[in-house]
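Friendly challenge for the regulars: who can give me the structure tokens for this chain first? No prize, just bragging rights.
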Amino acid sequence: MENVNPEVFKATKARPTAPEDCIDDVDDEIDGREIFDLIRNINDPEHPLTLEQLNVVQQGHIDVSDLESKVTVSFTPTIPHCSMATLIGLSIRVRLLRSLPTRFKVDVKISPGSHASEVAVNKQLADKERIAAALENSQLLDVVNQCLSGMDQ
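First reply, four minutes later:
Bragging rights claimed.
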């Protein structure tokens, strides 16, 4: 474990759901808060904490263009040499790919200047073939699914 005593942040309250939010026939716009709500409770691979509690994901680091069907998430690892950064990014990408309509293009990257291997990790996270190969690895997929297992918190 690299970051034995991470700083823990207070989680935000979930956005209340209005009755009209649950109507399947209505095509409502996807916004940054909705994306944040999808990824905030992903479990950190090293700690029994969520990415929101560790301040790895923040609503202000999410860009959404519903019209262009594009979502960009920038995340900040807890330490500059985090060896789990690629796994965290992969978990975010998988959660969004499983949750969003297929029309969306999802980009996940490290926040500028927050990781020593930022360029290399971003290159891995942007490589569709590498992502597909990673998801075919049953052991890696098990770890990703474990990170996603706390989604109903």
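DSSP finds five helices and three strands in the chain. The chain has a mean pLDDT of 89. Your move, everyone else.
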